[in-house]
């Protein structure tokens, strides 16, 4: 199973489209995870044209995005329990907030955004992933997202551009 993992698109409208490389890599995915700061419903509608989308709200979302999306969710796919959370909060590092938000949930993977910094880390046997952002790189040198392969052996591919 091939999953696209994105976060922090920060698109207030579709006047500025998602990057072409992202569109090209979405063609054969089975599922898309969006870890918040979407900012416009049209982004989710666009993504849903490729595959089912699981999304959570971020601190930069408002209006319908806040009303219609959960703060966090757990998705079970191909034998993996995956927690999705944006990562915002008041204290500590983003990665720690994401980890702690699922500490009693028995998840295999925690996916989050917020920092715009790509990350792959393991903590207490849980894989922690941040895809960065395909549209707002902030202090990063490149834009990024993840292709996650949920097979017997888990594989994570960061797409940097």
UniProtKB/TrEMBL annotation:
Keyword Metal-binding: yes
Cofactor: a divalent metal cation
One MF annotation (Gene Ontology) recorded for this entry: metal ion binding
Signal peptide extent: none
Domain of life: Bacteria
Residue ranges annotated for the Calcineurin-like phosphoesterase domain, each copy included: 1-152
Enzyme Commission identifier(s): 3.1.4.-
Record keywords, A-Z: Metal-binding
EC class name: hydrolase
Pfam families found in the cross-reference section: Metallophos_2
Family named by the database record: Belongs to the metallophosphoesterase superfamily. YfcE family.
Protein name listed in UniProt: Phosphoesterase
Native source organism of the sequence: Geosporobacter ferrireducens
Biological classification of the source: Bacteria, Bacillati, Bacillota, Clostridia, Peptostreptococcales
């Amino acid at each position: 199973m091939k999953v696209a993992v994105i976060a922090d698109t920060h698109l207030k409208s579709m006047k500025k489209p998602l990057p072409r490389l992202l569109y090209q890599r979405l063609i054969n995915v089975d599922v898309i995870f969006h870890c918040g700061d979407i900012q416009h419903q049209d982004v989710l509608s666009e993504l849903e044209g490729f595959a089912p989308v699981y999304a959570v709200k971020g601190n930069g979302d408002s209006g319908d995005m806040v009303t219609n999306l959960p703060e966090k969710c757990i998705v079970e796919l191909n034998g993996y329990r995956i927690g999705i959370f944006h990562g915002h909060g008041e204290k500590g590092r983003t990665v720690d907030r994401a980890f702690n938000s699922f500490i009693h949930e028995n998840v295999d993977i925690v996916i989050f955004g917020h920092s715009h910094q790509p990350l792959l880390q393991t903590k207490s046997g849980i894989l922690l992933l941040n895809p960065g952002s395909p549209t707002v790189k902030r202090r990063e040198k490149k834009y990024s997202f993840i292709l996650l392969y949920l097979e017997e052996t888990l594989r994570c591919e960061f797409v940097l551009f």
